[in-house]
């Protein structure tokens, strides 16, 4: 009986530590997303060259999408393999469609 109580206590402590670490990652990710947004607004307000600003904003947006998926939508957690597979399949199909249209237009 004492072993079961000890195992349960150890499991509870493990879960607490795991949740604490996950919350820390989410707060850090949220802060990074705010910083990326401020950087993007700052570059636009500073009226930098469009040839520089647009690619940087696209990269920052892609990073934020990754943060949203992995940290806020929990796509990296166990048990989310099928939704992740479906999502990446959709992204791949969209990429192929856009690529085909670009090739057809420019060919």
UniProtKB/TrEMBL annotation:
One of its GO terms (cellular component) is plasma membrane. The chain crosses the membrane at residues 27-46, 52-73, 85-106. GO terms for molecular function: cytochrome bo3 ubiquinol oxidase activity; proton transmembrane transporter activity. It is found in: Cell membrane. Keywords: Cell membrane, Membrane, Transmembrane, Transmembrane helix. It is a multi-pass membrane protein. One of its GO terms (biological process) is aerobic electron transport chain. The keyword Methyltransferase does not apply. Belongs to the cytochrome c oxidase bacterial subunit 4 family. PANTHER family: CYTOCHROME BO(3) UBIQUINOL OXIDASE SUBUNIT 4. This is Cytochrome c oxidase subunit IVB. It comes from Gracilibacillus dipsosauri. The gene is ctaF.
């Amino acid at each position: 009986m004492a072993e079961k109580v000890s195992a349960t206590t150890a499991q509870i402590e493990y879960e607490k530590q795991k949740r604490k670490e996950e919350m820390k990652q989410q707060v850090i990710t949220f802060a990074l997303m705010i910083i990326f947004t401020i950087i993007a607004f700052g570059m636009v307000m500073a009226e930098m060259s469009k040839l520089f600003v647009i690619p940087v904003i696209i990269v920052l947006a892609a990073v934020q999408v990754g943060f949203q998926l992995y940290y806020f939508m929990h796509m990296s957690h166990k048990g989310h393999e099928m939704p992740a597979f479906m999502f990446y399949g959709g992204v791949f199909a969209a990429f192929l469609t856009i690529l085909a249209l670009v090739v057809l237009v420019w060919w």
